[in-house]
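Changelog note: in this version the structure field was regenerated for every chain. One regenerated record is shown below for reference.
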Amino acid sequence: MPVTNAVHDLETRTLTITAEFAAPPQRIWQIYADPRQLEKIWGPPEFPATFVDHDFRPGGRVTYYMTGPGGEKYAGYWDMLTIDEPYSFTFTDGFADDDLQPNDDMPVSENTYTFTERSGGTVATYHSVYATAEGLQQVLDMGVIEGASSAIGQIDAFLAA
């Protein structure tokens, strides 16, 4: 599994996951920039994702839903802030309702995904800052570390296929 570290801090309201891949940053970037590739790795294997909108540019919105084993759907969105291809992008990440509109009752985070070249491969840093410590605790209780680690863990197999 490519995840090498996962650290959260309620005081600073942060969650940082680090992973390493045997592919250059340009290849890792392509996964996130292409919704059909992103569907292969976003969400844990038992909750595959479907990306509905993928306006992957500053000011754009990405919407998706994950489908659980019993057919239940969990929606989310990204409001894209910055793009520095192929090294990083920032976005606001939140939960969405059935119409893919932001669910204001759920936690929101500001995210920076960074891809750094190392020895021909990539060190990926997934950094999230939550609006409140309670929001971070809520997603921790929902299994965000396990879910994200499981999703990120699919990248190597996807690249090998």
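Spot check on this record: The helical segments are 25-33, 35-38, 133-141, 144-152, 155-160. Residues 3-160 form a domain with the Alpha-D-Glucose-1,6-Bisphosphate; Chain A, domain 4 fold (CATH 3.30.530.20).
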